[in-house]
Amino acid sequence: MMKRSIFIFTVIFSFVAATLNAQTDVAKQANALYSKGDYQAAAKAYEEILKTNGVAAELYYNLGNAYYKQNETAKAILNYERALRLKPGYDDAKVNLEMAQLKVIDNVVSPPSFFIKRWMELLVKDLTSNQWLVVSVITFVLSLTLVLIFVFAFSVSFRKISFYGAVVLFGLCIVTMLFSGIRKNQMIHHNDAIIMSGVVIVKSSPDKSGTDLFQLHEGTKVKVKSTLGTWSEILLGNGNVGWVEDSTIEKI
Question: How far apart are CA 215 and CA 184, in angstroms?
Fold first, then answer.
């Protein structure tokens, strides 16, 4: 029985190791193609890795770079945005996204939001859902530790400090747990999208006979409010609303 278990474990371990080595080799090949300046082949290789091996912020970043080198602005922005969704603190992706956005024709200016709301939104996006969850667990454990100190401490000053410290840390635990839930919801139910076509005519209704409202160009970021058939209702940062065909946008 023991020999059989060892054999099964060895087979599984060998399979996992071979799979990881194959994934590493494919990634190295894609990076080599990029280094040689064959950006089209590199982009195709990165797309294949994402399709077969799962998503990763670094892969989206590399894919964005490959598209940027080909002057495919919309695809570059899309993949930089996807990298930042997975890894909000990815500085390289932030810098390259800002560079790519300089090529976008549309200058959509969003009205300034209340500074506390803006600060909270940035704070929540600073970490991933799992990272906020880890912070929540840590603060919970520390609050329990302070509760034990409060129960067993003989010094009145220690009891006061541990009591108030436990209350503060438990409050932080609740807040960071909420942040984790908000970030998870943002990842699952995100509605942000990128205009992928060169020029898109935004309509007043979800059909081609609708009134032309305004134009958008590739790389512009929009929010999808609703969908109807093959059409999506979009919202811009400046408050403008209209309908575009689904084929002209791609969700981040």
Answer: 33
